[in-house]
User: Which sequence fits this backbone?
């Protein structure tokens, strides 16, 4: 899921995100599927100045809380908070020299 908000509205974004995740979990439950909150990741994306202004570290997801991450893997690509692709390039180079 993706929520786009200005930096000063980050707390309302976490509330909306938590509600969206709860709605998806309910839909999955109706269809006999289950959302695994242990595999859920939250990452703030933006410029270094914008990301540094966000002070929210824990986001409530269903019955647990998820800590925000500096980078996340999505479809094999490692994306970092600042969208620099540096962790992905490092991982690809490390794999190539293996």
Assistant:
């Amino acid at each position: 899921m993706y929520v786009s908000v200005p930096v000063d509205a980050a707390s309302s974004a976490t509330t909306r995100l938590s509600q969206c995740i709860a709605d998806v979990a309910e839909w999955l439950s109706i269809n006999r599927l289950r959302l695994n909150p242990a595999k859920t990741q939250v990452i703030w994306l933006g410029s270094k100045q914008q990301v540094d202004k966000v002070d929210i570290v824990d986001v409530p997801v269903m019955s647990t809380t998820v800590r925000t991450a500096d980078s996340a893997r999505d479809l094999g690509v490692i994306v970092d908070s600042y969208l620099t692709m540096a962790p992905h390039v490092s991982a690809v180079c490390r794999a190539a020299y293996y």
